[in-house]
Amino acid sequence: MEILGYSERGILNSLFFEIRGHSDTLHVINEFLSEISYPYRDVQLEAKDVAILIEQSFSDFGDADAVLLIDSEKGKQTIFIEAKVKTWHRHEWLIEEEYKRFKDGIEKNKVSSSNLFTQLYHKMRLFEEMRCDWECFRDSEINFPTWSSKSPRKIGGNEVVLGAVKKLSGYLDEAFYISIVPDSSSNLRIFFEDILKSSLPDEIKENDVRGWGYIAWEKVEKFCKEFNLTETLRVFEFNRGQIY
Fold first, then answer.
1. d(C-alpha 236, C-alpha 14), whole Å
2. What's the Rg (C-alpha) of the chain?
C-alpha cells in the first residue's frame, strides 16, 4: 500500500512517522534536531524522549504544523514548527518577501493569519502566556496588537485542545520556534543574520527571537536521503513542484 501526503502537512506526517518507525528512533530524531540552524544562540538539544503533536490546534492561537515536546538533560523544551511550501504556479518562495508582507500588514493593521511570521508570533504569545500562569490560561483573554485579525484571543473550551495545552504545560522550561520553508539555506542565513533583528516590529523584541530557528526543505530532503527515509522521499517527489 502506498500513502502519499499532500503539501507541508503530508511531508511532516510522513517524516515523523517514518522516524518513529526507525530502528534507532532517538538517534535519528536527534540528528534531525541538529540540522536546524539557530542564528541567535548556541543550541544543542539531545533528546532522551520526544512526544510529537502534528497539526495541533491551539484555538485562537492557530494550528501548529508540529509541536515537539522534548525531555533532555537540560530540561523540558517545546519546539513549535511552522512549515510553508510554494504554490505550483509560483516561481519561488522567498522568506524576505514573506517578512515584507508581514511588515506591510502591520502598517495597514491587517496581517494575514496564514503568514509565517504571524504564526510564529501566535505561538510565541501562547508559550509566554502559559509560562506566566498556565493554570488560569484556560479562562484568560489575551490582548493582541491592533494589527491582529482578532483581539482578545483565548484558548477556549475544546477538550482536545485543552488536552494538548495540558501536555504542553509540562514542557515550559524553554521554547524554540522553527521555520521549515522552500527558500535556500543561504537566503535563510542572510535573512536571519542580517535582516530580521534589525527590523523587528515593536511587539517583537530582540530577546523574543533568540529561540527562532530555520531549516530549508532542501536540507530536510538531504537528511531523508542520509537516513534512507524512503517513504518520505516518495512524498517529497510527489510534492516536487511545491517544495522548491
1. 10
2. 18
The CA distance from 171 to 7, in Å, is: 29
Burial class (CB in 10 A: 0-12, 13-18, 19+), 89: exposed
Residues 56, 67 contacting (CB under 8 angstroms)? yes
* Strands of the sheet with 63-72, listed across from one edge: 47-57, 63-72, 75-83, 174-181, 212-216
Alpha-carbon gap, residue 88 to 180, rounded angstroms? 18
CA distance 103 to 143: 20
User: Residue ranges of the domains in the chain?
Assistant: 7-243
pTM for the full predicted model: 0.96
Rounded Cα distance, 228 and 182, in Å: 21
> Is the link from the previous residue into 182 a cis peptide, with omega within 30 of 0?
no
Compute the distance between CA of residue 197 and CA of residue 34 in angstroms, rounded to an integer. 23
Pick the closest to residue 51 from 166, 202, 213, 184 (CA basis): 166
pLDDT tens digits along 146-203? 999 999 999 999 999 999 999 999 999 999 999 999 999 999 999 999 999 999 999 8
DSSP character string of 49-99: EEEEEEEEE-GGG-EEEEEEEEEETTEEEEEEEEE----TT-S---HHHHH
Sign of CA dihedral 82, 67, 149, 210: negative
Going by DSSP bridges, is the β-strand pair 212-216/174-181 parallel, antiparallel, or unpaired?
Answer: parallel
State the DSSP H helix or E strand holding residue 104, giving kind and residue range, or none if neither.
helix 95-107
- 193 DSSP assignment: I
